[in-house]
Amino acid sequence: MRNLVVSFFDENSPVTKIFLQHFDSLNLDRERILQLVGPDIEDNLIYHSFSDSAMQEPYEPFLGIIKEYYLKYYADRYSVTEFCEETNVYFSHKCIFESYIEKGSASRIEPIIVSDFEYEYKKMIESLVRMLCFISKEHKLYIALNNFKRAGLGTINIVEELLRCDNDIRLMIVYSELSVI
């Protein structure tokens, strides 16, 4: 296990996506990953463990990652609107990202047309993935998602899209077959 984790976080490794399925109480938290790999990736490691008791944020943790990176690295170069334009966010969703990044809660000006829900949902997933890919071109992203069995559908759809498209994001998914939902 140690060699697998260490080789995954090696930037020269061709493997950028990994799923770790286990049948026991594997403790692979942020501290354990850093202990195995070393402190070199600490600034680029985004660790998230899904909880069975806490209410999840939509698209958790990806929406929060985008907000954090925007505020840390892009706010001095782009307004949120410009950032959305630069990352080709679907035009009807720009106000959602603007309100979330600026105020902490997502709101939308236009009403949702029920018959267009699937299309809008697909466009939201695509926008989130484009934003993550844009960020990853300037900043190495090592994303470790633990307890993935408890992830919401939006998160799962983003992971599926990240697996489909060409990107430099390193993504580690950890889940236990023994845990009960």
Give the helix/strand layout:
Elements lengths: L1 H7 L8 E6 L7 H8 L7 E5 L12 H13 L5 H7 L7 H10 L13 H22 L3 E5 L6 H12 L5 E7 L5
Parallel strand pairs: 1-4, 2-3, 3-4
Helix pairs in contact: 3-6, 4-5, 6-7
Poorly predicted spans = none
> Helix and strand string, N-terminal first?
HEHEHHHHEHE
Radius of gyration: 17 Å
| Approximate helicity band | 40-55%
Rounded to the nearest angstrom, the distance between the terminal CA atoms is 25 Å
In DSSP terms (H or I, runs of 4 or more residues), the helix count works out at 7
Order of adjacent strands in the largest pleated sheet = 1-4-3-2
Total number of strands:
4
Mean pLDDT: 89
Strand content: 5-15%
* Rough outline: globular
Q: Concise description?
A:
Helices cover 44% and strands 13% of the residues.
Could you explain the architecture of this structure?
The chain has 181 residues and is an alpha/beta fold. 44% of the residues lie in helices and 13% in strands. The chain contains seven helices and four strands, in the order αβαβααααβαβ. Strand 3 (142-146), helix 7 (153-164) and strand 4 (170-176) form a beta-alpha-beta unit. Helix 3 (62-74) packs across helix 6 (117-138), helix 4 (80-86) crosses helix 5 (94-103) and helix 6 (117-138) packs across helix 7. The chain is globular and about 50 Å long. It starts with a helix and ends in a 5-residue tail after the last strand.
